Amino acid sequence: MPRFGFGQSHTRVEDRRFLTGRGCYTDDVNLTGQSYGMVVRSLLPHADVKVNAEAARSMPGVLLILTYAEMAEQGVGPMVCGFLPENAVPRHPRPVIAGPRPRHAGEPLAFVVAETLDQARDAAEAVLVDYHPLPPVAEDAFVWEMGDAAKVAQAFAQAARVVELNLINNRLAPTAMEPRACLARPLASGRLELTSGSQGVHEIRDRLAPVLGIKAESLDVITPDVGGGFGLKISPFPEQAMALVAARILDRPVKWTADRTESFLTDTHGRGHVSNARLALDATGRFLGLQVETVADLGAYISNYGAYVPTLAGTGMLTGVYDIPAFHARVRAVHTSTTPVDAYRGAGRPEAAYLIERLVDTAARDTGLSPVEIRKRNFIPPEAFPYASAGRHTYDSGEFARVMDVALERSGWAEFETRRAESKGRGKMRGIGLAYYIEICGGTSGEDVTLTLTPDGGAEILVGTQSNGQGHETAYAQMVAAELGLAMERIRVVQGDTRRIAKGGGAGGSRSLSQQGGAIASAVESFIEHLRPQAAKLLQAERAEFESGRYRAGESSVSFAQVLAEAGMPLSASLRFRPPASTFPNGCHVCEVEVDPETGETEIVRYTIVDDVGTVLNPLLLRGQIVGGAVQGIGQALLEHAVFDPESAQPLTSSLIDYAVPRAAHIPEIDFSTVEIPCRTHPLGLKGAGEAGTIGAAPAVINAVCNALGIRHMDMPATPLAVWNTLNGKP
């Protein structure tokens, strides 16, 4: 059996409580004496306002109303940015509650706290706001560059052909199943506690404490079950700070839960890029240089990672899986009178993959090469690894042509024209497209674990990552159970609690298994070594070897559990694992669509994914992550778009009536498989997988749609109306 349970499709242990209604999410938590918060939000995207809350303060059940003035009196500062480029200074620091000038629709103007939710809602509606409308703005925030502009200019001067493409990466609303929510309460000695869905309690604590003007150790953060994160719940939000301030003032718990409209208005959005991409090729179709100019919409404020996503997070991946010797990118970040933009599943890497894979497909069309041939001519060859890309990354491994060939075979690529002819006979337009993605994930920050074993075979794992539905409780327990021969049901994973877990990096960037899993494996190894002398003594041997949960000496063996029981005392290990490098999962998506020219309706009739995510721990969990991610990418390609009125900046997609998310009917059965090429820089061979499906899907779908329509390009989302307009020559 492979070590640490690798390759075993163990079913998810956490699903029992979810499927039987015993999950516990933030809104399920209630405390004695809790009150309820309701946010008064700006109706206009940009205005000068005067807020009059006097009548509302005297309404039944109202306990407190916080405005900008009260927050200032409490010493509450602006929200904190997690990353800023050197030349970027926030033009407008983001207040917890807006002052006299809100900068996007839905921005908080007041926080009403009452005995009941209905009383809070009634009082919020009674808060009077006098608006003086202002025109929406678009203003520069900063300019950021990567690469060698002179080298790129030389490559273009020598090129036999230049392929150029303008494209839009549409803005998205994350739309997590569980809306944002929080429950704040005061503790003894001035301490505060926050229960809230998150992707990591330590990030929330460490970013909120300076906003409140307190030390991080004075704030406890607890995260129960989380119904989807996707980047949205990495960072703190103003409502969490409001609830904490109100709890501190009232000396009683304060609860706030967003409704779906609030989520659309105020959850940070994703993507939102407009790019011009130019690719220089020689006479044989080989790539010489890549030049990219991107305008990135930050929204009204620079959110926690809003400046990181369009710069360091994704720009270095723009060269993709191709041997492109010269590269330069320039990012112009702008503020608009819209909801702030932050990390969303993939965070910069989907934008990069979409750009390069659409550009490569366009180059194939312009040169007359097939999408397969142009990629094979330009793939980084296996013998080139480790490969230092022009985007400042060092890829450790990859066999891109091999993975693509498997995908082409499984997708029936060679027989496509027969299927196209059959569709044509039915009056339909059939198309096929592929995309080959690569992403950077994992990081090198490291992760801690505390693993405790008891003589009766029980185990407790304290982790700094945070599950949002990925199956961490199964994956981590599986590693311990499989290696030590313990029962899965006796292993408890503890996460999301700063009271018990000193530090942690949370979930994001597909880092959990590569970093937390590495720490768990190291802790398990330490126990095996610690008990080895005891096992040898029991076996009456000088040394005992260990394999598959048992110590062995000659023909004799004893289980790890037996040796642990013989030791008669709990064992505990706390250690940190820090990988030496990031990992680079990659893979090929092949999408086949059928378009009805009468309606513009696009149906995905076949979808194939072949991924290299390194060594696979749990194939069942992996499939769930990849397919779920692909659904989100398909949603962006065909359906989703957070739209604002171009004249007023008023949001036009503020409910599930206006904003289309993918449904079961939109998604075919997805053929998913892997080619395992172990990572050379990770001791377990892991490469990460949480965001991979999203990164590869959108370009594959749009490449297929363009192939079906016989056109050079169309922007996402390829809605029925957009496709119909394209077919009928309408703008």
3D architecture notes:
It is built from 19 helices and 27 strands. It is globular and about 75 Å long.
Number of helices: 19
SS-derived structural category: alpha+beta
β-strand number? 27
Mean pLDDT: 97
Distance between the termini: 59 Å
Please outline the helices and strands.
Elements: H1 15-19, E1 35-41, E2 47-52, H2 54-57, E3 62-66, H3 68-73, E4 108-114, H4 117-126, E5 128-133, E6 138-147, H5 149-158, E7 161-169, E8 181-186, E9 192-196, H6 201-212, E10 219-222, H7 238-250, E11 254-257, H8 260-266, E12 273-281, E13 287-299, H9 309-313, E14 326-336, H10 349-367, H11 371-378, E15 387-388, E16 394-395, H12 400-411, H13 416-425, E17 429-438, E18 447-453, E19 459-463, H14 472-484, E20 491-494, H15 512-538, E21 545-547, E22 550-553, E23 556-559, H16 560-567, E24 571-577, E25 586-595, E26 602-612, H17 619-638, E27 670-674, H18 692-709, H19 720-727
Parallel strand pairs: 1-11, 9-10, 13-14, 19-20, 26-27
Antiparallel strand pairs: 1-4, 2-5, 3-4, 6-14, 7-12, 8-9, 8-11, 12-13, 15-16, 17-25, 18-19, 18-24, 21-22, 22-23, 25-26
Helix pairs in contact: 10-11, 10-18, 14-15, 15-16, 17-18
Keywords for this entry:
29% helix, 731 residues
Short description:
This protein is α+β, with helices and mostly antiparallel strands. Helices cover 29% and strands 24% of the residues.
